[in-house]
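#data-curation
PF: Archiving a pair of folding outputs for the training set. Convention for this channel: one message per protein, sequence first, structure tokens after, nothing in between. First:
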Amino acid sequence: MFLQLFLFQKILTILYHNQTQKEKANDKQMLLWF
């Protein structure tokens, strides 16, 4: 269970960093909604 969450979080962070390099302003707006 913990391993699954850890892997999922890791994938999300990687995807997030890739997005940040492309468009930072949009990500900041998206983060406000979460």
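PF: Second:
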Amino acid sequence: MRYLEFDANGHLVQMLRLNRRFGKPNLTQLAHCWTLVNFLANLDAIESSKTGDRK
């Protein structure tokens, strides 16, 4: 399964593929993973706004 996330500008922030060898992920694992993904995405957005870098 693939999970897509887009930021406010419609850019693809992260694509996460869940590997079957880990079995079926539970909601807690997904929540932790998405928390980390969102945290990293926010850090990247903050850094981009500081430098004025637009990708």
